[in-house]
Amino acid sequence: MRELLLLAIAFLSGSIPFGLLIGKAKGIDVRKHGSGNIGASNVGRVLGRKYFFICFALDVMKGLLPTLAAGKVLGYLGQFEMPARDAGMWLAVMVTAVLGHVFSPWLKFKGGKGVATALGALLGVFPALTLAGAADFALWLIALALWRTISISSIISGFMLPVCIVIEFFIARQLGWIEGPILEAMWPFLLVGIILGSLVLWTHRSNMKRLRAGTEPKIGQKPIVTPT
Hints:
The structure is a single chain. This protein has 10 helices and no strands. By secondary structure, the chain is mainly alpha-helical. Helix 1 packs antiparallel against helix 4. 70% of the residues lie in helices and 0% in strands. It has helices spanning 2-15, 18-25, 40-47, 49-74, 84-102, 115-124, 130-147, 150-174, 182-203, 205-213. The chain has one domain (2-213).
């Protein structure tokens, strides 16, 4: 019952459509403008930069808080090494929060692309995925500065997440934070990193089409596409 409750809380937390609620508060349905997405990128494009940051922060928190709470309840917050079953439960809560955002029941199981919520969820698995999540976010920022296109940054981030996790665990092993075999400690986290990265790539498939067509807007540009 405890595990089911943690999963339910995570899914419901992730499912809160903050982007839609922010737009409604301004009298705008963001689903009818720009790319039609409820994520921070489209909210910022439609309502302005300030609302991008508000939506991004709220979407991060709805992944971070249930994941931190689950780690505390399970008793593994602050540890790298733990039994695979307990790691799996904690990571299941983390992924469930992201799935709640992507498949929100309040929006007929449609939602955002999951980048901000995934970042919050990664940071919440402290410390086993916190450093990897922070490094992946740094790569996202670097890519954004280079190409000024949020979707490109997100796609690169999805590809690089498993790499960041592997690097983090090898560093942790060198620092003595992991005493047992590194693969035994790392594999549940790496598997989830691959799943999350793949989910981000899957939710950006329409962006990939626009990138190939040259119609994907950069930061500050008005969107060229219309909702489908």
